[in-house]
Write a structure and sequence with these properties.
The protein has 261 residues and is of the alpha+beta class. It has helices at residues 14-19, 37-51, 58-70, 134-145, 187-198, 244-254; strands at residues 2-3, 6-7, 23-30, 33-34, 76-83, 99-106, 115-120, 150-154, 167-172, 175-179, 203-206, 218-223, 227-230, 233-234, 237-238, 259-260. It has a seven-stranded antiparallel sheet with strand order 2-1-6-5-3-4-16. Strands 11-10-9-12-13 form a five-stranded mixed sheet, covered by helices on one side. The chain is globular, with a radius of gyration of 19 Å. Keywords: Aminotransferase, Transferase. One of its GO terms (molecular function) is transaminase activity.
Length: 261
């Protein structure tokens, strides 16, 4: 873990640990290449304007991320977190001086298709990938304590939105439906949607409520660390794991070109 390209000290992490005020993006880096790199960088730039009210030096971000990835076995998961170590809890509107924290972890192994519980929960400012993870992780904990692997969120109108750290898509009538409730426009979701359209697979965004779930042929979740993964069940209702479109999803995502970091 490095702050501005050098080992970070515990004191420098104080504001992030105590206030959890910042934003980030997570990238899977293989041979110093990243799928959707420009989307990750655009996210950091836009979120920095919202969270800190200042511009972010993306060339520096790339340099620091590349430095960390070069020192780690490939593939590696790189998280770039932007936060202000001098944040004043009493005066968060003071001019920010955000800095760049880069952390690494091994790429996850292939995982079994998850079972999902359902919970009513809406993230603060869902369009921003911010570091406020208490609520999402608490809901994940509740779901796992109830016998599920993870949790799917709905809003107060029972409209499906997202998961704690992933987007969800549904397969219906030979096409893909992305939920239209407020949620993060994930990089992997956007890349996959573009790839599906190029492959001639119908894709649309629409409201999906909990009453619609039984009519879905299959479901999958997307994140940058693992790509698209099929969902085994939602609230105990089993879903297809061998639908042909799931194979298409994985093939089209694997074929996406990656950009030099």
């Amino acid at each position: 873990m490095e702050l501005n390209g050098r080992p970070v000290t515990p004191g420098e992490l104080g504001s992030l640990a105590l206030y959890n005020y910042g934003h980030f993006t997570t990238m899977r880096v293989e041979d110093l290449r990243v799928r959707g790199l420009s989307l990750h960088l655009d996210r950091l730039l836009g979120d920095c304007r919202v969270v800190h009210g200042v511009e972010l030096d993306l060339d520096r971000v790339r340099h620091l991320a590349r430095r960390a990835a070069s020192a780690a076995p490939s593939p590696v998961i790189i998280r770039v977190t932007v936060f202000d170590p001098e944040l004043d809890l009493a005066h968060p509107a003071a001019k920010a001086r955000p800095e760049i924290l880069v952390s690494t972890r091994p790429a996850p192994p292939d995982r079994q298709p998850p079972s999902l519980g359902v919970a009513e929960y809406e993230r603060d400012l869902p369009q921003v990938k911010h570091s406020g993870m208490f609520g999402p992780l608490l809901q994940r904990r509740f779901a796992q304590a109830g016998g599920h692997d993870d949790v799917l969120f709905t809003d107060a109108r029972a409209r499906v939105s997202e998961g704690p750290t992933w987007n969800i898509g549904f397969v219906k009538d030979g096409g893909v439906v992305w939920p239209g409730a407020d949620r993060l426009n994930g990089v992997t979701m956007r890349l996959l949607d573009q790839a599906l359209r190029r492959a001639g697979v119908p894709s649309a965004t629409a409201e999906v409520d909990t009453g619609d779930l039984a009519a879905m042929d299959a479901a999958f979740i997307t994140d940058a660390a693992a790509g698209p993964r099929p969902v085994r069940s939602i609230e105990g209702a089993e879903l297809s794991l061998d639908h042909p479109l799931l194979t298409t999803l994985r093939r089209e995502y694997a074929a996406l070109p990656a950009d030099p970091l």
